[in-house]
Design a protein that fits this description.
Catalytic activity: AMP + diphosphate = 5-phospho-alpha-D-ribose 1-diphosphate + adenine
Radius of gyration: 14 Å
Structural class: mainly alpha
Number of strands: 2
Low-confidence stretches: none
Protein name: adenine phosphoribosyltransferase
EC number: 2.4.2.7
InterPro entries: PRTase-like (IPR029057), UPRTase/APRTase (IPR050054)
CATH topology: Rossmann fold
Number of domains: 1
Number of helices: 4
Family: Belongs to the purine/pyrimidine phosphoribosyltransferase family.
Distance between the termini: 29 Å
Order of helices and strands: HEEHHH
């Protein structure tokens, strides 16, 4: 990984909160709300995902569930492809 990629990874991981034993004992829920609330981290995430889409030749983005739906539209806009 490049240092830029590594620094982006560290930024994103630092904004994902672990919630132990939710929704049931033994499960660790990954709360992305802090990531969504941080404009720098959210931009870094959507830029990284858009770059992957372009690199792999995606023509459409699909948001299948709540988290995916929140991210899919801005990624599509950044990648210049359909949603």
């Amino acid at each position: 990984m490049t240092s830029t990629t590594e620094s982006t990874r560290e930024l994103l991981l630092s904004r994902i909160r672990d919630v132990a034993d939710y929704p049931k004992p033994g499960v660790v829920f990954k709360d992305i709300t802090p990531l969504l609330a941080d404009p720098v981290a959210f931009t870094a995430l959507t830029d990284a995902l858009a770059e992957l889409c372009v690199r792999h030749g995606a023509t459409k983005i699909v948001g299948l569930e709540a988290r995916g739906f929140i991210l899919a539209a801005p990624v599509a806009v950044r990648a210049g492809i359909g949603f």
